[in-house]
């Protein structure tokens, strides 16, 4: 019997378009002799689109409006063996959709409510990982109300970290809303941008030297494995949205040119983080490696990483001998696994 899979894509976050790109790749790769796949695109307003509108959105790469309230569709989701929530950012990668599917009793690919929500929030992630003994940059939290009522307190907190620093919405991805702040006079603009997208904002110190950016994939549930380590090289101030998604702007090196001992440290720290955050299925764990000092700092954990055929996560496992379609098949298998 073929497994019936519901593939969710799009969604309300700033990563709507990225999700649709990933979904097109996954749709093309799930072997049709094993799976019956129904895609459903969620509009930017959070409504679930019927088949023809879904098809149109997959082709155009965007769905601004249209569709039904989510609850109408979950009722019909009963007919599925598993859901692949290929959604990035808030209202998709953050435990909300995972909660809905858990309530509905439908297995799904990736982390559950706890792992998704804690990993989505960069502050929560840092707190949990600090208690697991994982090295990270120095950081501070600010919430929107503080920024509105006592902006000087927020500015002072930033100054404690020194400049340049990074300002980020705590719950987002694809570098949306992130600024590298070189001087104090750039701080307010960066905070206004980030608070426009999230109630919680994280301020992060930079390492003294420009770090190398290395990433590793994790695959599995309670016995996860790590992929080879990859590195991103690009010519930009930081790995921003444009650099991420403009063809040819960033180059992936797989495996990363690292001493084997460093690569082993990356894999070990990523596995520790995956377990500490109660992740499941998959995650891409991003690090900063400071060559001059040998320091390895965990940046973040992405529980639903970019998933086009040319994205880092599938490429990392391809280097480990798992093709893209074997990988998605394995992920569905992990969703159905008893835990
Ligand atoms: P993703 O698309 O991987 O989910 P994201 O939106 O969650 O990304 P981050 O990975 O936290 O964002 O940051 C984006 C980029 O900004 C990093 O890849 C790096 O280039 C730069 N960056 C972020 N924080 C720091 C930092 N503390 N020090 C140096 N560079 C940083
Ligand atoms: Mg991220
Ligand atoms: Mg992400
Ligand atoms: Mg990242």
Automatic annotation (TrEMBL):
- Hey, what's the signal peptide range on this chain? none
Record's keyword terms, sorted: ATP-binding, Cell shape, Cell wall biogenesis/degradation, Cytoplasm, Ligase, Magnesium, Manganese, Metal-binding, Nucleotide-binding, Peptidoglycan synthesis
One Pfam family from the UniProt entry? Answer: Dala_Dala_lig_N
Q: Which GO terms describe its molecular function?
A: ligase activity
Q: Which residues form the ATP-grasp domain?
A: 126-333
The EC number on file is 6.3.2.4
Q: Does the keyword Nucleotide-binding apply?
A: yes
Q: Where in the cell is it found?
A: Cytoplasm
Q: Name the pathway.
A: Cell wall biogenesis; peptidoglycan biosynthesis
Q: What's this protein's function?
A: Cell wall formation.
NCBIfam families assigned to the protein according to its UniProt record, in alphabetical order: D_ala_D_alaTIGR (TIGR01205), PRK01372.1 (NF002378), PRK01966.1-4 (NF002528)
Please give the family membership noted in the entry: Belongs to the D-alanine--D-alanine ligase family.
List the protein's name. Answer: D-alanine--D-alanine ligase
User: Which species?
Assistant: Deinococcus caeni
Q: Which gene encodes it?
A: ddl
């Amino acid at each position: 019997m073929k497994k019936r899979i519901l593939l969710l894509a799009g969604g309300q976050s700033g990563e709507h378009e990225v999700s649709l790109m990933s979904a097109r790749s996954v749709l093309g790769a799930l072997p049709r002799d094993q799976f019956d796949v129904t895609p459903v695109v969620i509009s930017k307003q959070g409504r679930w689109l019927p088949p023809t509108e879904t098809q149109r959105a997959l082709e155009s790469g965007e769905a601004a409006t249209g569709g039904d309230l989510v609850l109408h569709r979950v009722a019909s989701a009963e007919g599925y063996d598993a859901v692949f929530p290929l959604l990035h950012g808030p209202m998709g990668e953050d435990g909300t959709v995972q909660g809905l599917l858990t309530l509905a009793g439908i297995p799904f690919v990736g982390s559950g409510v706890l792992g998704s929500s804690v990993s989505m929030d960069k502050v929560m992630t840092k707190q949990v990982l600090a208690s697991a003994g994982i090295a990270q940059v120095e950081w501070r939290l600010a919430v929107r109300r503080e920024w509105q009522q006592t902006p000087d307190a927020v500015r002072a907190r930033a100054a404690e970290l020194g400049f340049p620093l990074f300002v980020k919405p705590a719950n987002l991805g694809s570098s949306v809303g992130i600024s590298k702040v070189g001087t104090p006079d750039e701080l307010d603009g960066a905070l206004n941008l980030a608070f426009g997208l999230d109630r919680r904002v994280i301020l992060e110190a930079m390492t003294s030297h420009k770090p190398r950016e290395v990433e590793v994939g994790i695959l599995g549930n309670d016995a996860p494995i790590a992929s080879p380590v990859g590195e991103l090289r690009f010519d930009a101030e930081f790995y921003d949205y444009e650099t991420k998604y403009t063809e040819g702007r960033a180059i992936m090196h797989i495996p990363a040119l690292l001493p084997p001992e460093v690569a082993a440290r990356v894999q070990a720290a990523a596995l520790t983080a995956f377990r500490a955050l109660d992740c499941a299925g998959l995650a891409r764990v991003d690090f900063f490696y400071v060559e001059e000092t040998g320091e390895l700092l965990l940046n973040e954990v992405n529980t639903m990483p970019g998933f086009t055929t040319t994205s880092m996560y599938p490429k990392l496992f391809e280097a480990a001998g798992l093709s893209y379609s074997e990988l998605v098949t394995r992920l569905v298998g992990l969703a159905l696994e008893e835990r």
